[in-house]
Design brief:
By secondary structure, the protein is an all-alpha fold. Helix content is about 80%, strand content about 0%. The protein has one domain (about 1-35). The chain has 2 helices and no strands.
Length: about 45
């Protein structure tokens, strides 16, 4: 497991802009999940 995390760290060291891209993608996905969960509680079933 440690070699996997070190390879990710090495990749991000070589491509520093990808750290921002990954952070932004994580942020957007977490916000979308919260929005979907909020609307799912108000839906009436058959």
């Amino acid at each position: 497991m440690e070699s996997n995390s070190s390879s990710v760290a090495a990749y991000l060291a070589e491509h520093p802009k990808m750290a921002g891209v990954l952070f932004t993608a994580t942020l957007l996905l977490s916000q979308a999940g919260t929005a979907v969960a909020g609307t799912g509680g108000t839906t009436n079933g058959p």
